[in-house]
Amino acid sequence: MRAYVVKEWKHPSELALVHNAPEPATGPEDVLVDVHSAGLNFFDILQAQGKYQVKPPFPFTLGAEFAGKIASNSQIPKGCPFKSGDRVFGSAQGAFADRIAVRWNSIIPLPDNLTFDQGAGLFITWPTSYEALVGRAELKPGETILVNAAAGGVGIAAVQLAKVLGARVIAAAGSQSKLDICKQYAGADYTVDYTTPDWQKQVLKITEGRGVDVVYDPVGRIKDSLKCIAFKGRALVIGFAAGRIENLPLNLVLLKNISIMGLHWGLYAHKEPSRLLVVWKELLSLLSSGKVKPIVYSTVYPLAHAMEGLGALERRETWGKVVVRVRDDEDAKAMAKL
Ligand SMILES: NC(=O)c1ccc[n+]([C@@H]2O[C@H](COP(=O)([O-])OP(=O)(O)OC[C@H]3O[C@@H](n4cnc5c(N)ncnc54)[C@H](OP(=O)(O)O)[C@@H]3O)[C@@H](O)[C@H]2O)c1
Prior knowledge:
By secondary structure, the chain is an alpha/beta fold. Helix content is about 30%, strand content about 20%. Strands 2, 4, 5, 6, 7, 14 and 15 form a seven-stranded mixed beta sheet that branches. Strands 10-9-8-11-12-13 form a six-stranded parallel beta sheet, with helices on both faces. A two-stranded antiparallel ribbon has the order 1-3. InterPro entries: ADH-like_C, ADH-like_N, ER, GroES-like_sf, NAD(P)-bd_dom_sf, Quin_OxRdtase/zeta-crystal_CS, Zn-ADH-like_protein.
């Protein structure tokens, strides 16, 4: 089968697609999934170079998020509700490949109204934003939220979810075209280019001087954003897409009576697994109803060009979720036209 096999640490641009990679080994609790689409994440770029906390032993296949069908030759472990051909999505090591082995109890049925491309970027991105807004910041109807990198993978989900929760959303991003995406596809109420000087003044103007109740930050721009946070505001630390772990003078926390909260979605599987069920029940209901919709970047890369997709992600050119199409599927084509 085809797979991006990492045999030594290197930048993804130097990684070639292997055409005769071995089939993935399945453990007793695993099913085999035919990957139809895979989601690209910034940590894939880091992992290929040995700069990510998860360092599988060599050789390993790159990629994590996927959507696909249970393979016809998959074993079906005892208690597993899936059967061959079922549409599923999930995350495991090795998504940039024709097939992936994954624990049956970690995958989720793909709602009928979503394409494989849309499903490929759900598993990490959407619960991260949902739990940050609902479980951590407890965002309330009528509150105002500033979403940084609002056109990016987690950001564009946060914008949509905040709207569904009844909040007023100010989307901040680094270019006019990305801001247009936030309005057009995600329903942001206001947009601000946070590369312009004194952008916080625009946020203060929108909020009539009060500032925002919640800041959602996947970039490393918390300190900047505190210039326009309200008294008793909550700031969510989601990630450091700018490549530097931000330091914060704690007097800023004291001066405005604010709370800084972190969210590491991956930890819930170990620390609070019951929360996964609650979050996914809500999310699947929202996704199935069409109240929120995964936004896929306009260029969908074939597997042979997956590393170009990671390059575009790294160069900050993309918006929404960047997806690799591993198999062309009639279902996906039909639904894409809807
Ligand atoms: N805490 C968690 O559980 C969790 C879960 C998932 C992801 N994350 C983290 O969240 C961050 C964003 O993930 P994502 O999937 O939304 O990524 P993404 O789709 O690549 O979006 C990241 C955005 O960050 C902005 N950015 C600012 N400076 C950048 C730089 N120097 N290089 C690249 N991007 C830069 C860009 O938007 P502009 O051009 O508009 O500035 C870019 O679109 C990542 O650090 C990721 O690791 C955390």
